[in-house]
Description:
The structure holds 2 protein chains of 2 kinds. Chain A has 11 helices and 9 strands. Chain A is α/β, with parallel strands linked by helices. Chain A has 2 domains: about 140 residues, Rossmann fold (3-Layer(aba) Sandwich), CATH 3.40.50.1370; about 160 residues, Rossmann fold (3-Layer(aba) Sandwich). The radius of gyration of chain A is 19 Å and the shape is globular. The relative contact order of chain A is 0.16. Chain B is mostly beta strands. Helix content of chain B is about 10%, strand content about 35%. In chain B, the strands form 2 sheets. Chain B has a 5-stranded antiparallel beta sheet with strand order 2-3-1-4-5, covered by helices on one side. Chain B has a 3-stranded antiparallel beta sheet with strand order 6-7-8, with helices on one face. The longest helix of chain B is centred in the N-terminal third of the chain and has 7 residues. Chains A and B meet through helix 4 of A and loops of B.
Amino acid sequence: xxxxxDILDLSTTELSELIATAQDIIAHPETYSEACxxxxxxxxxxxxxxxxxxxxxxxxxxxxxxxxxxxxxGTSSAAKGESVADTAKTVSCYADIIAMRxxxxxxxxxxxxxxxxxxxxxxxGGHCHPTQTLADLLTIYREKGSFDNLxxxxxxxxxxxxxxxSLINALSRYHNIRFVLISPEELKLPSYxxxxxxxxxxxxxxxxxxxxxxxxxxxxxxxxxxxxxRFFNEEDYxxxxxxxILTPDKLKKAKSDLCVMHPLPRVNExxxxxxxxxxxxxxKQVLNGKYMRMALILKLLKEAQA
Amino acid sequence: xxxxxxxxxxxxxxxxxxxxxxxxxxLHLGDLDVSVAIIKNVTxxxxxxxxxxxxxxxxxxDLDVIGxxxxxxxxxxxxxxxxxxxxxxxxxxxxxxxxxxxxxRCITSCEQELPHVFKLADExxxxxxxxxxxxxxxxxxx
Lengths: 306, 142
């Protein structure tokens, strides 16, 4: 049974197909309004989420399907100590496809290994969040027309930011991509991402603590939030949380066709004064996420039926 | 130093000096009710020094564990006092329940019955990563 745990579970050909499907959904939504009629998506969210869960649920409703929902470990059998494996086996009896978020890294893989229906990882701790990357990729594609020849700035928490790691992995497979990694020393990109992706594939990159120095060179600026939930120490969080704040003044130095992205929720990293700037793409990302989740649900259900 | 030769059993030879005890622990040889000898720092023409483990019983040993600790080790199968088979090893692609993931954020940290599975991520650097959270295995992960 095909599940999607990591963005690298999808080939570049499959990514292109998903993007084509998403664009067709955008152009002809009525064609897809009953595409999943009679099918049920179970959204198992054992960690707080607003947009990802609603995005999956909206996606399934727009495909004409239904949704079964579990929110918070406290309201499910997980509170009674049920294992992820048992939950996955149980939910397989009720639903046709699972979208799962869990605070522990690897939980989605355990679910996929035990479910008899496809599992989509909707975030497993600080590890992977492939459907956010799908949203990011569709946004880049719609704004830039391709994934090649881009200078991509990644700014903020590059250590625990799972969306950053997934996006680097996804973009590493395209041509002439250059990364600018901007973070405080404590939140630098982990060496394994550098060694096993950037260096392995010979991708050019620079590391810096200075956003303003590199801002004029960027085609994409991917801002991230410093995530309180990833810190064991509150003091470290408080010290680092406002290290980068993108303001209209700083944006004056950027290219006119810069694409400013953020996986959301934002806290202070992007001033709300930027929201009306045509370069602000983070709410487009939210919408694109729904379309890509629709495309992915369609693909996995089709494969499961084959 | 004399160690009796074995009639039926296994000799793990050419173990990198200093790795014999770790192999003894990971193979759970202490749990066996048979004669087991660890010979440390044996003079070796090829290696300078090496460790040897002799197990005086024809029991299955986990070759993946030996390959993980020291892919240069050789396995000699002894039957009726004679060498009947010699095996060389390679780094195993996958290790199950040999080393443990120590990442407190990993699903294995809270679900005790899950197998701890590691995959070979970089053969040249001998890097193994947890299949669940991708955390790198450390030398003392057991």
